[in-house]
Amino acid sequence: MSDFLQLAVLLVIILVAAKVSGYLSTLIHQPAVFGELLVGVLLGPSLLNITQLSFITNTHVGDFISEMGEIGVLLLMFLAGLELHLKDLAKNTRVSATAGILGVILPVGMGLGFGELTGMDFNHGMFLGLTLGATSVSISAQVLIELKKIQSKVGLAMLGAAVFDDILVILLLSTFLAFLGGGSNFGEIVMVFVKMVVFLALSVGVGLWLLPLITRWTSKLPISQGVATLALVIMLIYGLAAELLGGMAAITGTFIAGLMFARTPEKGIIETNLHSMAYAFFVPIFFVSIGLSVNLRTLDIQALWIILGITVIAILGKIIGAGGGALLSKFSWRESLQLGIGMISRGEVGLIIAKLGLDSGYLSADVFSAIVGMILITTLVTPPLLRTVFKKDDEVSPLQPALEAEPEIKKENS
Question: Most exposed residue of 75, 128, 134, 214, measured as fewest CB within 10 angstroms of its CB?
Fold first, then answer.
């Protein structure tokens, strides 16, 4: 069987499994993403290991699926930004900043403390704390989209908090690495901050003034799907710029790109075309690929208590930290809990930091495996927890059609 046919077979398995598991998940009143994440674990090396089936001889097919999944998460965050209005997001800057900052500081501190209690030195404990401070809001964004809460006050604040979270974690990591390198590299830390500011200023500036002109000009050209292609190109450029210029996660860049396109008259065309492509193909691959990348068999059972310990810290750190920040910003107790739970899931940023710590000798293999287990657990528990805490909102008016919820959302944000 050729390499292409091997890939085609795996894609058929992944897409069918994702949609069936998502449907079954809705039957038990859970978001579809919960089933897609869980079936990814079952299809991965933890159980079936579909990339190692007897007829799969291409050793790179797993990497290719993972890379298509990365496109999926970029599209997911782009579409999340496309559904929002920059003005509404700006109104929640205070709560986003407070929740984002406290949602990093508390888990980092708790992780450092846990490291001290378990005999780690400061450097090992700090790397553990940094992995616990990072968040991956893409999972929560998908759940809020399914629940039609992405434009709610909590949804706007949560996405804004994720941006502040990303910025602060990168700054803390850069500061710590500078400290390890000699402790006097203050200029390097300043440069990291300057690069972030330059990226944010350029991305917003281009998005506010140049992007609408380019989009309007492209829409008048006699080319097939010109506006949709432009949106994809700009999305990828923003993602690249976020990592290469701003030193931030690519999903932060694509989220900002979506916000910029949301202001254009062509928003509806872009959303219609990219939504179908994303949710029919790339986004399901992303959620399943998360499970495919996890091998529960490699986790040391004797270190189970470490996994449970850092998982508890990961969950409580975000609920108390980010949720507490929302509470300080005049959110209600229930809204604060919703925001805190929305920040629980960890993902690519935490894995990058953990891998850096492992490669540099500041995290042991056992602790790295425990972090992988924590990321898997927090990713799996976030969708059902979010569905539960938002359930009361649905019960207020159970017969109200989803499309009629927008006036209520606008009232919340006014």
Answer: 214
Total domains in the chain come to: 1
Q: pLDDT tens digits for 4-63?
A: 999 999 999 999 999 999 999 889 878 888 889 889 989 998 889 999 999 999 989 999
For the chain, the first-to-last Cα distance in angstroms comes to 59
**Angle in degrees, 0-180, between the axes of helices 211-219 and 226-244, rounded to the nearest 10:** 150
Q: Environment class of residue 365 by beta-carbon count within 10 Å: exposed (0-12), middle (13-18) or buried (19+)? A: exposed
Question: Is-contact 167 125, C-beta < 8 A?
Answer: no
Task: Report, in angstroms and rounded to the nearest whole number, the Rg of the chain calculated over CA atoms.
Answer: 21
Distance CA 42, CA 48 (A): 6
pLDDT in the model for residue 298 = 72
Whole-structure pTM value: 0.79
Please check whether residue 99 is in contact with residue 320, taking contact to mean a CB–CB distance below 8 angstroms: no
**Residues 300/366, Cβ–Cβ less than 8 Å:** yes
**Domain around 386:** 69-286+298-394
- Amino acid present at 255: F
Structure tokens at 191: 């440069």
User: Does any domain span residue 239?
Assistant: yes
Place of tokens 């089933």: 35
> What CATH number does the domain containing 350 carry?
1.20.1530.20
User: CB neighbours (10 Å) of residue 184?
Assistant: 9
- The tokens for 264 are 């254009």
- Give domain status of residue 292, yes or no: no
CA pair distance 336, 333, nearest whole angstrom: 5
Cα separation, 387 vs 93, in Å, equals: 25
Structure tokens at 240: 């690249």
Q: What angle do the packed helices 283-292 and 32-43 form, to 10 degrees?
A: 40
Decide if 105 is inside a domain: yes
Question: Is 243 inside any structural domain?
Answer: yes
Q: Which residues lie closer than 8 Å to 375 by C-beta, 6 or more apart?
A: 346, 347, 350, 351
